[in-house]
Amino acid sequence: SVRYDATLRERFFQEARSASALNHPNVCTIYELGDQDPAQPYICMEFVDGETLEDKLSGGVQLEVDEICDIIQQVTRALTAAFEKGIVHRDLKPANISITHDGVVKILDFGLAKRLSKEPANDDATIEFSLTQAKGIMGTPNYMSPEQALGNDLDHRTDIFSLGVVFYELLTGTKPFAGGSLGQVLTNIINLTVPSPATANPLAT
Prior knowledge:
Helix content: 25-40%
Number of strands: 7
Strand order of the largest sheet: 3-5-6
Distance between the termini: 45 Å
Structural class: alpha+beta
Order of helices and strands: HEEEHHEEEEHHHH
Strand content: 5-15%
Number of helices: 7
């Protein structure tokens, strides 16, 4: 855990500092980070009064196409602000996109965020893939870009791909790269040609 692992603790603060550089209405704001003692780091962030897209999808809510497009536009504005600061989310998915009761979209959890200007020669994604197999790959496989699935260098395009996957799922109700195992999901991401969303939702044109 972060509490007992010095390396993870440093990553915790590095990523929190990266995320706290973002000040945008569509990003969950981080107000403070620190630790009461070396074993107890913390982040104080904005409370988002709403529900995530994952909650909506699991509840069987079918969003209208206009509403879906509005959500995606708000996420795009937030990602643009992040890209301009050299920050990539790397774990964009329905569970990390929340909508307030006023219809404002907030991107949550920049816990995998990464400053492009500080990338090591050997990309973090590759290191994380090899070091965390017992704990799971960093990032969520169904929404990974091909580059992330392969452990290649990443830039802002990985978030654009993940947002496209979210967009597809909102329009069709299905995950485009779903599979029966982690290996199958990654294989699908790398090799599968996904049918047009219009085949499942004629309004998605």
